[in-house]
Amino acid sequence: MVIPVSIPRVPRIALTIGDPAGIGPEVVLKALAQKNWQTQCQITLVGTASVLHSCYQSLEHRGHISDPDQWELLELPCASFTLGSAQASSGAASFHYLKTAIQETLAGRFDGIVTAPISKTAWHQAGHFYPGQTELLAQLSDVERYGMMFHARSPHTNWALRVLLATTHIPLRLVPEVLNSQLVRQKLDLFLEVLRQDFNEPDPKIAVAGLNPHAGEAGALGTEEVEWLAPLLAQYPQVSGPVPPDTLWVQPGQLWQDSNTPAKGYSGYLALYHDQGLIPVKLLAFDRAVNVTVGLPLVRTSPDHGTAFDIAGQGIADAKSMMHAMELAIELILNRSKREQHVSVRP
Length: 347
What we know:
Blueprint: E1 2-3, E2 12-16, H1 24-32, E3 42-47, H2 49-59, E4 72-75, H3 88-106, E5 112-115, H4 120-125, H5 133-141, E6 147-153, E7 160-165, H6 175-178, H7 181-197, E8 206-209, H8 224-233, E9 239-243, H9 245-248, H10 250-257, E10 268-271, H11 274-285, E11 290-294, E12 299-303, H12 320-340, E13 343-344
Parallel strand pairs: 2-3, 2-5, 3-4, 5-12, 7-10, 8-9, 8-10
Antiparallel strand pairs: 1-13, 6-7, 6-11, 11-12
Helix pairs in contact: 3-5
C-alpha cells in the first residue's frame, strides 16, 4: 500500500545570473517579472548585487522587469567587466556563481538550480577548462552517469518534446569514435529512468536516430548501424530505431504544430550528436526549449540559448526560455518530492 504524504514546503530554487557581461541578468529579472513566483517557489538569486542593480536601472524605464531588491540574494563578488564580450573577469564570476549554487544545493539549502547562460570562452579565459555547466554539475555532484536533455512544450498542442544527446560538445569528426554500444546503452537506460521518475511516464517509448544518412542504408552509407547500433536497440522493447535522421523529426514537427495529426510520437528522442538533436529543437522551440541536466541528485534547468553578447544591455533579450526553465524546475522538484515522500507499507 502506498500512502501519499503532503509536501511540507514549496521548492527552493537557486537562480544563478550567468555571465554578467551577457544577457543573463536581463533575462533573469525579466522572467521574475512575468509571474507571481512567490506562490510557487522560494527563489534565491546567486550573483552580485551591483550587477543586478545596474541591469535594473538601465532597463526599468522599459517596464516588465523585476526589482532585484524584492528577492533574496546570495551575494558573491564580481570584478569589473565590459558589457558585451567574453572576458576572464565575467567568466570567473559566472563560474563562482554556479559552483556556489551547486555546493549549497548539495548541502540541502536548495532543491534545485536554474542557471542563466555562461560563456565557455570566458570560463577558459578565467582558467576553468570545462566544456560547459553540465560537466561542472556532474563533477561536483560526483556522478558519471548523466546527460544533456532538452524539453519543450508546444504552445499549439501542449505536446512535450524531449531530446537527449548521446554525445554533446565534441567535434563532429570525433562522434563516430566516441559512440559505442556501451555509451548508447548507458544513455538509453538513463533516459528511460528519467522519463519514468521525473516526467511520470510509466511506459516510456524512445526513438533513436541513426548516425549515417538513411541510417546507413544497410551498410552502403556507413556500417555503425548494422554492426552494433541496430542489434543493441533490438534488445529494448521500448525503443525504435535506428531511424533515418532526416525522417526522425517529421512526426515531432507534426505533433508540435497540429493537434489533429494522426502521428503518435514518442516519450523521448535520442540524438547521437549535438546538432542532430539541437537543430530540430531550436527550429521548433527556440524561445521555449529548456536544457535539463539529467542523472544528478539535484534538479538543474537552463534556458536553451547563450549569452548573446551582441545584444547585451539593449533590453531586447527574450526571457521566455528562462521562464520555462523556472517552471520546469518547479515541476521536476515537485515530482521528485512526491515520489520520495510516498512511503511503501508492507502488510
